[in-house]
Amino acid sequence: MQGNASNGNGSEASATQQLPTNKDNTPYLTTNQGTRVYNNDHSLTVGPRGPILMEDFHLIEKLQQFDREKTPERVVHARGVTAKGYFEVTHDISHLTSAAFLNGVGSKTEVATRFSLVTHGRDSPEGLRDVRGFATKFYTSEGNWDLVGNNIPVFFIRDGFKFPDLVHALRPNPANNIQEAWRFLDFLSFHPESAHMMTWLAGMEGIAADYRHLEGYGVNTFTLVNAEGKSTYVKFHWRPKLGAKFMTDDEAQSTGEFQMRHSHATHDLYNAIADGNFPQYDFYIQTLDPKDEYTLEFDPLDCTKVWPEEDFPLQPVGTMTLDRNVDNFHNESEQIAFSPAVTIGGIGLSNDKVLQSRALSYADTQRYRIGTNYQMLPINAPKCPFHNSHENGAMNFMEKTGQVNYWPSTLESVETSPEGKEAHTVSKQEVSGQRVKQDIPEEKQNDFKQAGERFRKMGVRERGQLVFTLSNWMADPKCTSEIRHRWLDIWEQVDGGLAAALKAALAGQKPLQAIKEGKLGGHPDKMGASKA
Ligand code: HEM
């Protein structure tokens, strides 16, 4: 029958429904056009010594497909790995959100989670000192929700306008392709709000041991909206059941089975899942009533701050279990596409300026990196039905029938949602003010307090690690004395003891020596360690 094709299993499928597969649906090798290959060893030539003929379509197809095998890598978070599994609710939070998948203890939702490093390329080592990404796609019955977080609870900057400069400074020097500390110290010295983040990145938490022992944080502030339309600010947290684990620089040098330090974290995750040791992560929220948002000494929408757990206790919600590896790395890890703006009724964004810039950036880069119709790929498409008038575009493989590709229409009966709760992704807060390009009000900037408190709570080993990393960065021969002094000024405001220890370390004293001489203060009995 014209237009129909056999799917190889004896049943008939329309040609457009037949997705390409490498499953053994023919006993013969074929070209991508389905033509049987009679010789898969040699090019078509004139005589055995050539030349090669242009009419060898199979050769041209094979080489040209190969020439295009690499898609552009992610502009950040290029190095990563995905695993699949499910999320199960342990504590109902329907009083906070109308999102159906979070309501009802025992409710299960399919997920895919991609862990990553931020700064370097797609094949870079996994033992580097760097932030780790922790991004989860929840395939809910009401559409996809992406929670795109990191393993450090705060961020370097509080306005997404600065993100490209931040990433340029952290990346290798454009002149020599080497990552050099003086460059990010230079840039960040103009952004004292980054001091808090630096105490994490340069501290014990700067090199995560692997992905099974990884914490995750939504970092930005989001908004939950319940069925009555009431909004609550929220921060999201993942805690690995195995505990969080980190590595020292020395451990990172020789990590992994057979010293497979290049890919040790991918290896570890893949093998654990293949062996049935499924990693699990508990999911928590912290909440804040928007009526109290101006009562804190910091701005709760400023992602350079944590909400202290003593004041905003973690509330359990559920557990994620990763029990399946990807079937194909390119299809499900390279092409998986997350965005903090991909959300469902009951979960909204907030006015957090980093989050708002993120809302634009992800889908924009994905349309470039993967293609116009990236949302149709099986790993990205929702598992629930979807329907709209979006049309065409390169590589569109959606089967569409009918004559109405506009809305509304007298001929098509699809309606907007009768429940209307999807409007709960949009904040109900009133917004007013002049158009300005300004930082948040100075009295709420409070850039040093949380960094100082964190330093003062650290044990001796944690302080030693922090001073070791920071002083090594500042000792970069290309770090000018101006950059060094700008940072010493910042650290002085964070904690006088920390600044003194850094000066001593820069003068040639080993950080642990400085600690012994009391230059770091701290609790000599409390050595500090990974949280495992
Ligand atoms: C304004 C600030 C930011 C901008 C403009 C931005 C932009 C981007 C872009 C363009 C990508 C690549 C996406 C892709 O190619 O699929 C990305 C990836 C990512 N970003 Fe951000 N980002 C920002 C801040 C953050 C923050 C604060 C976090 C943590 C909460 C974060 C977490 C991630 C993660 C985890 C990924 C990797 C997602 C994956 O595994 O595919 N980003 N970001």
UniProtKB/TrEMBL annotation:
Source species: Coccomyxa subellipsoidea
Organism ancestry: Eukaryota, Viridiplantae, Chlorophyta, core chlorophytes, Trebouxiophyceae
Domain named Catalase core: residues: 30-415
Top-rank taxon: Eukaryota
Compositionally biased region (Basic and acidic residues): 418-427
Coiled coil stretches, renumbered: none
Region Disordered: start-end pairs: 1-42, 418-437
PANTHER family: CATALASE (PTHR11465), CATALASE-2 (PTHR11465:SF23)
Name of the protein: catalase
Cofactor: heme
InterPro entries, alphabetized: Catalase, Catalase_clade1/3, Catalase_core, Catalase_immune_responsive, Catalase_sf
Residues making up the signal peptide according to the UniProt record: none
Family stated for the protein in its record: Belongs to the catalase family.
Enzyme Commission code: 1.11.1.6
Keywords: Heme, Hydrogen peroxide, Iron, Metal-binding, Oxidoreductase, Peroxidase
